[in-house]
Write the structure tokens for this entry.
Amino acid sequence: MSKAEKFAVLGQNVDRFEGHDKVTGSAAYVADVFLPGMLTGRILRSPLPHARIRNIDTSRAEKLRGVKAVVTAEDTIKQGWGVFFPDQYPLSVGKARYVGEEVAAVAAIDRDTAEEALELIEVDWEELPAVFDAEEAMQDGAPLVHEEKDSNIALTIDVERGDIDAAFRDSDLVIEDTFESVPQWHSAIETIGSVADYSANGKYTVYMNTQTLFMARMRLATALGVREADVRVIQTAVGGGFGGKSCDDNNAMVAAILARKARRPVKIINTREEEFLAGSRPRVNMKVWVRMGFKSDGRIRAKHMRVIADNGAYSGKAPAITGVAALRHDTCYKYSDVRSEAYLVYTNKIPTGAFRGFGNPSAEFSVEQMMDIAADELNMDPFEMARLNAAEPGYVSPHGNRVISCELKQCIDRTERMIGWKEKRADRKPNRGLGMGCTVHVSGKRHFGDYDGSSATIKMNEDGKAFILSGEGETGQGHWTAMCQIAAEELGVPFSDVAISEADTDLTTFCLGNYASRLTYVAGNAVKNAATNVKEILHETAAEMLEADPGDLVSRDGYIFVKGAEQRAISVADVVRGRQFRRGGAPVVASGSFDADSVSQDALRYGNESGAYNFGAQAAEVEVDPDTGRVTVIQYAVASDCGTVIYPIGAEGQVEGSIAQGLGYALIEGIRMEEGRPINPNFSDYRLASMRDMPDLVHEFADSYEPTGPFGAKGLGELGMDPVAAIISNAIYDAVGVRIKTLPITAEKVLRALQEKKKNGS
Amino acid sequence: MKAKFEYLAPASLDEACGLLQEHQGDAKLLAGGTALVMWLRMGLLSPGFVIDLERVPGLDGIDYDPADGLRIGASVKHRDLELCPAVREHYPLLRETFYKVAQPRIRLMATVGGNLSHGDPMTDPGASFMALDAEVTLRSSRGERTLSVEDFFVDYYETALEPDEILTSVRVPPPAGPAWSHVKFTPRSEEDFATVGVAVTMTGEGNRCDDVRIALNSVGPSIFRAHAAEDVLRGRELTPARLEEAGAAAAEASDPIEDVRGSSDYKRELAAVFVRRAVEQAAARLG
Amino acid sequence: MKREMVLNVNGEEHDVEITPDRLLLEALREDVGLTGTKEGCSIGVCGACSVIVDGRLVSACLTLAVTCEGKKIETIEGLARDGELHPLQRSFVQYGGFQCGICTPGQIMAAKALLDHNPTPSADQVKEWMSANLCRCTGYYKILESVMAVVEGKVDEERRDEAVRQARIQSLYQSDTYKSGASD
């Protein structure tokens, strides 16, 4: 039985709002922006992981013909910026802390000239001792990445809920283990870039492929030392974000500084190598130690987790990510007694940051393997154990996360069926194995100020077509389409009668942007509220024109009817014109706001972080080649609880894409680092899976309805990514009896583990 | 830093040889461009002259003759070799090998001559040509010479080509027998370079190997022939113990570098595994 | 030194003045002004810059523009005729074959190059061919479905119900595997 309402537009596979632009090559990405007089900017980067700058001589570069501006920290206000800790500068002040850090920059008439100029800049370096490992960096006497701080530990979390010692004593089974992840790069096919312009009256206009428009503006204003309104940020088409374009890097800052000095527009597009070195901030790599206690029937009794997270040289969003890794997953299962410790540690490496999953993948790589180990020890079916512990509606996590809708058990059931768990377990094949796991994610997260909201304005055109003004933007997931569907549903007009604006800080109200799987839920609610308000205006005027009571009116298919007398109808277009073209006429326009019913976590990290929680279960079947260690994923099954599905093709795309990225994280993606230098930072060595590398994938959405969501919807984008690596590891264990606890799970690691197992005769 | 060069497009082989001699040491030949253009862009090469071979007649075409075997023009693209009916019929090893190189777009661009001349130990064709006892023809203003593919590969990105020489064609003798195999191990992605690649040709009967040629790529500074492994098998029954021994001999001969695809020890162990498997697969094709 | 030359793009001749090191990618985007062709990896791996030259799919980032004189270059901008989308373009919209869209021009040009030579490839042939074009958003499932919809004449068909669509994607991945050997 469906919990969903009957919808006119929602749940339909409409043509994506910006679809024709994208299939014809006419969508304008940042590299496609050309302004009159535009210069090419290039950045001089630190070749050393930790070094003091004794002197920078730019005189030769400045004299090169075609060079219009050369900038160093001396051209900046030397104001640190950063969303949680202001520890980063647009251009190195005094010293560089990782290979790739921005030291100086040039704007010239073309790329060749700019690159030639970079070679003419002379930096007098004093190399400093560097530290590359987070645990080493925590030791006394380790080189300090930031000398003004008394240690490399940027953040410490240590919270205990309940009585953890008593809970372990009360446990029938206690297990502990350590799991380690590596940085994963977003590897959006489009690198980060910007085009900055500076007008004579002191205003910056910056075209960016950002996924967080107003946060980009906030940080530009901070680093440039101007008011927010002196910076206009316009979102271009964005060629993939995944967290990497949420503005923790310096690209746009440098472009703006160059533009001000050159008094001409400056474009800086990261090369692929720069994108690895200092562009999108890769996933925070973590070492996670976990101890868990269980009752003999499989119930979780206690959990103690210690996370050591590698911050890299600057903080970005890693503080929040570390918090998520420490606490979020406790919303997935019913816990009573937990302790979470986490340390975020500076090292002389590329700053790590936000990537789809936001700390949760490292946590789930650990805990979802622990659940599998426990099931094995207790001789229980992992699906049974998951069902036994699964969160339910009304569950409040030990850290205060309040679960409203929750179809985790339904997801577990669906996944068990889709993967054919029982049948395959009954008919085991050599070197084949099955693994499963569960996942939880948020629909928005309250951590930037005490606000996790959105706003939108809808204005009606005189032809009856609605136009949504929103600063949330489109990064590729299809939010523009979903927002138009939500507005159409609420307004009672066809999907084709709704359009949405590009994100532009000067033209739209404040929006936080695209992260934390928040837009369908948070922005969707704002758009729906705006549409409700517009509908009220339309009905008021329609009531006058139809000589009816506004309370008796309904909207459908672009018409407004009198309930029960549907021959008394008027088109939305006629209503808009009727209201506009009369004495004292006025446009039909209204705004809507929404702020999630969540709370900021207190000093002890207690607080309901999100308005709604999304759940899922997944399972994999793998085959392992015992001679080479190669792992082949045969089939993958996913069930997701994202509430009402607004735009099915878009939602399915989120599931499919997140599993692909999860499989890359599990099995393929990693880079060799030597002394803080990435070796071969390119797409030949850093491989992304291709079409024929993909396994057979089956997925379903749970029948679900979130009462606080727009028409019952909640978030989805990150959910799928989180547990994949653990599930693959569980399946490998099931297949050949070895468990890999570090990522990526390369063929070599599997082979070594198999050899070790053979040697030990186990 | 991007390279600055003069672009030359000779219309004959003699002209090309002349230009190459004239600018010896300061010129690079352009064929498919998949390696050269990338290296130019990365600043790994900065020649004064780039000589485009595309308009040079006589470097294209695939000719098959039962007595003489196969002649492949240097400018033949990977994809054309892969799809050539004569290759499909008479040289299934080449077809299989070229099908596995990179991905279709690269195969549509990259040429056979360009691939061999580049001397990249990570690419696949060289090992199969070696297993087929192919030879290359090298031409310069000084004349022409032929060389076995085995002798052509010298070291890491180093071939026997003199600075004034152009590889003009590859000749593959008539197939000695029906038994062959090719394995390419790409555990990260099908599109990756081989972690190890093995090509085998074999003659014999039943389970007896009369003669065998085994060549490997991606596990040494250049593509190489595993002579010691061949010696273990030649004239012998292919018992499991011999296959193990041949694998071990090939591993002994390999000298892989550690990279993102694995440690050198791992690759050496894989060389043993895949030589064993490749020989098994080839033996399965013996009459 | 710059040289004058003519590039024939989508049937139209363009006079350009370029140095020999100019990539076809740069010439198209900056000299001809057609920015639909995208740069992704710059080393021929990702396929975002895929264009068709004299009927062959190539990476514009590995092609010197100077070598394209006298050749017919096809880019994404040439596909729609008189405002009418090419079936591949319609299919990618209808079947959700893209998200962010940055790889899409390359994906569509790659698919066109395949279908121009072989209008009825099997799903495995499409997978093998399209594996040359990377996408970070979709996991490729809907790209495959978009191309197969053109092959099977299912563009513009009324959208089927979700269960049928899912079964279909699954069947595309369960077909006889290409790994058993070469296919054309």
About this structure: DSSP finds 19 helices and 28 strands in chain A. The domain at 33-128+190-239+246-278 of chain A is CATH 3.90.1170.50 (Aldehyde Oxidoreductase; domain 3). Residues 519-546 of chain A form the longest helix (28 residues).
